[in-house]
Automatic annotation (TrEMBL):
Pfam family, one: TPR_8
Lineage: Bacteria, Pseudomonadati, Pseudomonadota, Gammaproteobacteria, Oceanospirillales
Organism of origin: Spartinivicinus poritis
Residue intervals passing through the bilayer: 6-22
The keyword 4Fe-4S belongs to this UniProt entry's keyword annotation: no
UniProt-listed InterPro entries: LapB (IPR030865), Rubredoxin_2 (IPR041166), TPR-like_helical_dom_sf (IPR011990), TPR_rpt (IPR019734), TTC21A/TTC21B (IPR040364)
Protein name in the entry: Lipopolysaccharide assembly protein B
Domain LapB rubredoxin metal binding residue range list: 361-388
UniProt binding sites for Fe cation: C363, C366, C377, C380
Stated role: Modulates cellular lipopolysaccharide (LPS) levels by regulating LpxC, which is involved in lipid A biosynthesis. May act by modulating the proteolytic activity of FtsH towards LpxC. May also coordinate assembly of proteins involved in LPS synthesis at the plasma membrane.
Membrane-topology annotation of the record: Single-pass membrane protein
Family to which the UniProt record says this protein belongs: Belongs to the LapB family.
Membrane side Cytoplasmic: residue ranges: 22-395
Compartments in which it is found: Cell inner membrane
Length: 395
């Protein structure tokens, strides 16, 4: 219904504009335009009756009758876009291919149709064809540079061609689209993770350096660097990398806690002390249940379960948390005996059911939630916007 209203308004506006603008022209020209106007309304009528193939034929015929008409060209472009948006990609391709076959098109018009056609191919999953057209457009550089680069970038992300994606991201940055620095950093992180998985630490380190060059706030680069340094036995360097997250984005501190615990278990007194004082600082400034439980583990190891339980209970009174409650019950189950132990077991079962299946991460852009951290949101495809959930059921 909205499409229909849009179309009626759109075509009426074109028809009125056409009439007002051209009424003082010579009779011969008027005759031609009147014929064009008639074809518009025939095409519109077909569209309203959902006879889309007939509508396409009519509009293309209008273009043949008046090859120099900008109005007809714009109408065909709008029609193709509408089909593409509605998922009728075959029809969009037909409109744009018919347009492209018109010898009367100017160079600029021809390039514009190529861009539209590459969008159609992309929507149809014909990535190679889309890429071919877009590469030509980028080389020509005739006014559609940013649109073509953005579509190429989407293709290379789908294909996980990270080096090509970086190249395009850098071209977009040269076109002053600054928001792409975050994406370029993530693409470098993708490459770094591939290299780290293959134990190519030198290459991995270099890619992470590039990631941080493009985005100093890239938490992911710090996390991967922390893991890389830890795998090489560079404990202090690993801790240094993880501590950067405090300033980069404290929402993600909880993601570094498992590795911080690994570092704490190493036989290095200074690192152990530094990890604990860092966790204390995080608890004070950016408290989360992951930090509370990690500090509780340390207390349990040094002072025993009762003190650990007391610490968790104090923290829970300040910031209620299901995960904290579960841990507190577990500690008391370990200490209790007889009927109390049995009752605590029942309570634990209940709280487990409450927390099971609850999402741990949510995208701040589209609201997608899940139990895994995705650096690229599977729903809206944005990078670095899926974050740990805080609050009673989260961190
Ligand atoms: Zn999202």
């Amino acid at each position: 219904m909205n499409d229909t209203v849009y179309l009626v308004g759109f075509f009426c506006a074109i028809a009125i504009g056409f009439w007002l603008g051209r009424r003082d022209k010579r009779k011969k020209v008027r005759k031609s335009k009147e014929r064009l106007s008639k074809e518009y309304f025939i095409g519109l009528n077909y569209l309203l009756n959902e006879q889309t193939n007939e509508a396409i034929d009519t509009f293309i015929k209008a273009l043949e009758t008046n090859p120099d008409s900008q109005e007809t060209f714009d109408t065909c472009i709008a029609l193709g876009r509408l089909f593409c948006k509605r998922g009728e990609v075959d029809r969009a391709i037909r409109v744009h291919q018919s347009l492209l076959a018109r010898p009367s098109l100017t160079k600029k018009q021809s390039l514009m149709v190529q861009l539209e056609l590459s969008r159609d191919y992309y929507s149809a999953g014909l990535l190679d064809r889309s890429e071919g057209l877009l590469t030509q457009l980028v080389e020509v550089n005739a006014g559609f540079q940013v649109e073509a680069l953005e579509l190429l970038l989407a293709i290379y992300q789908q294909e996980k061609e990270w080096l090509l994606a970086i190249e395009i991201g850098k071209k977009l940055l040269k076109n002053n689209v600054v928001s792409y620095s975050n994406l370029v950093a993530h693409f470098y992180c993708e490459l770094a993770e591939e290299q780290v998985a293959k134990s190519n630490t030198t290459e991995g380190r270099e890619y992470l350096k590039q990631a941080l060059k493009y985005n100093k706030q890239c938490v992911r680069a710090s996390l991967v660097l922390g893991k890389l340094e830890y795998s090489q036995g560079n404990l202090k360097e690993s801790l240094k990398a993880l501590q950067k997250i405090y300033n980069q984005d404290p929402n993600y501190i909880s993601e570094s806690v498992p590795l911080l615990e690994e570092l704490r278990l190493e036989q290095s007194g200074s690192v152990q002390k530094s990890v604990n004082s860092y966790l204390q600082k995080c608890l004070k400034d950016y408290p989360s249940v992951a930090i509370v439980l990690s500090l509780a583990k340390e207390i349990e190891m040094k002072q025993g379960a009762k003190d650990a339980g007391k610490f968790i209970a104090e923290q829970l009174a300040r910031r209620p948390s299901l995960r904290g409650l579960n841990q507190l019950i577990d500690i008391h189950i370990g200490i209790a005996e007889g009927k109390s132990k049995k009752n605590l077991g029942l309570l634990r079962e209940l709280t487990r059911k409450l927390s099971d299946g609850k999402p741990l991460y949510r995208c701040i852009n589209c609201g997608f939630s899940g139990q895994e951290l995705h650096w690229q949101c599977p729903s809206c495809q944005h990078w670095g916007e899926v974050k740990p959930i805080h609050g009673v059921e989260g961190q």
